Amino acid sequence: MSFLDYFKSSKKNTASIAKERLQIIVAHERGKREQPDYLPQLQQEILDVIRKYVPIDQDQVQVQLDKSDNCSVLELNVTLPES
Q1: To which H or E segment does residue 78 belong?
Q2: Fewest C-beta in 10 Å: which of 8, 26, 59, 83?
Q3: Chain-centre distance of CA 47, in angstroms?
Q4: Among candidate residues 71, 49, 38, the one with its CA nearest the CA of residue 61
Q5: Using one digit for the tens of pLDDT, what is the confidence trace for 4-46?
Q6: What pLDDT shows up at residue 25?
Q7: Phi/psi of residue 35, each to 5°?
Q8: Which conformational region is residue 12 in: left (phi greater than 0), alpha (psi within -120 to 50 degrees), or beta?
Q9: Residues 6+ apart with CB under 8 A from 23
């Protein structure tokens, strides 16, 4: 019976891992829904202005929206090239 128990326990571990991954995905999607609709467009326009003066890639930019009780803060971190 220990041989069969080995296979049963691995299925439970796989199911729990899948459940955890699904919870992470759902939490990530919920975070996207809470963002304002204009945020992607605002980000793109800011990047376009920066690109007029400095060449940057999309992966050099990090955007974060923090909300407190009555205030929202948009944080935009851009890694500028050294040259």
Answers
A1: strand 72-78
A2: 83
A3: 18
A4: 49
A5: 665 665 555 777 777 788 888 777 676 666 666 777 788 788 8
A6: 79
A7: -75, 150
A8: alpha
A9: none
Q: How many residues does the chain have?
A: 83
Amino acid at 49: V
- Could you please report the per-residue DSSP string of 20-67? HHHHHHHHHHHHHHTS-TTHHHHHHHHHHHHHHHS---GGGEEEEEEE
Give the pair of three-digit tokens for residue 39.
């945020």
Joined together, the tokens standing for residue 43 give: 């980000």
Sequence-distant contacts of 20-27: CB under 8 A, at least 24 apart: none
Give residue for tokens 């945020």: 39
